Amino acid sequence: MKRYDLVIVGGGAAGFAAATKANDLGARTLIVNSGLPIGGTCVNVGCIPSKLLLEMAYDFSYCKNARFESINHNQDVWIEFKRVIAEKDGIINKLRNKNYIDVLDSFRSIDFIDGKAYLRSSHEIEVSGEVYWGNKFIIATGSSPRVLPFRGIERIKYLTNREAISLEQLPKSIIVVGGGPLGLEFAQMFAMFGSQVYVIEKESRIIPLEEPEISFSLQKALENWGIKFYTGADIEHVLEDENLKFVKFRLGDKEMTLQGEEILLAAGVLPNTSGIGLENASVDLNGRGFVKVDDTLRTTAENIWAAGDCVGRMPLETVAAKEGNVAATNALEGKGLTINYDS
Q1: How many domains would you assign to the chain?
Q2: Do 33 and 19 contact (CB within 8 A), yes or no?
Q3: I want to staple 245 with a disulfide (CB 3.0 to 4.6 A). Which of 14, 186, 204, 263 is the partner?
Q4: CATH code for the domain of 57
């Protein structure tokens, strides 16, 4: 049985930052990663590809809709969406290789396994039938898109952000469920590429955690791109018929139906904490399924820390990386570092 100073479960922003710190400290470390490729959400299916597609959409839209009469085009501006996605994939692959795979290969004290991890105890982990021993552990398993249990959702083919960034054909129309940052980013991107976009939000305004003035100003700006908003909406039923998706919802005392070629669910995330044996290691979860940690990111197990989206404090790549660094420092050096989330 191979033995390690530190075992990190997850290879996203938090796990990779923890591994970097562990390598700096010379700790014999094992990273176990499954699901998304190394780098996790941000580089593979999150902020980097979405911002890249948004920039491409900006370029296309401003070329197609020049604001000044003196700017003319000799031919129509057009895109082949399949090539847009292929170009995005090529750029992401280069970034992943440069910022993660090549860096990982340079670490002298890090082993990497691509496989599903299962904790058999607070010191033993099983991967593909092999058991490994770790003195300290960091849980950094990230999160996955939340799928709300609307009536009929199990019978339609819906998108999350993971599928939306890989569509080979631009939808003529798309319904975005969720008026938070993620949903609005995709709504703007599809609108600038030329799709008719509808946004449905349960709360009375979009981005409800921000000041009302910000919500109203942002909605007005996005409406200039042709996006239509339905706030204070209560979705009752979703269905699919002849490759069209339908969303039936109540808006006040009115019953309404929207139809679109695609429906994108952008209503938050859920932690990847089930089915990995945390209960065998005495790691407790809170009522929403996130790992319970104290201010130093230590879990309810004395030798196990947690970091990133699976903790649920602030689902941002930069925060996850900071948490991973702090968790590794505390685990390996016995320190009690904390994070000021307000700074």
Answers
A1: 2
A2: no
A3: 263
A4: 3.50.50.60
- What's the domain range around 278? 3-145+270-333
| Contacts of residue 87, Cβ cutoff 8 Å, sequence gap at least 6 | 56
Closest CA to 322 of 12, 17, 16, 10: 17
Q: pTM (2 decimals)? A: 0.93
- Pairing type for strands 233-241 and 244-251 reads antiparallel
Average pLDDT value for the chain: 95
- Residues 313 and 241 reside in one and the same domain: no
Q: Assess if residue 343 is contained within a domain.
A: no
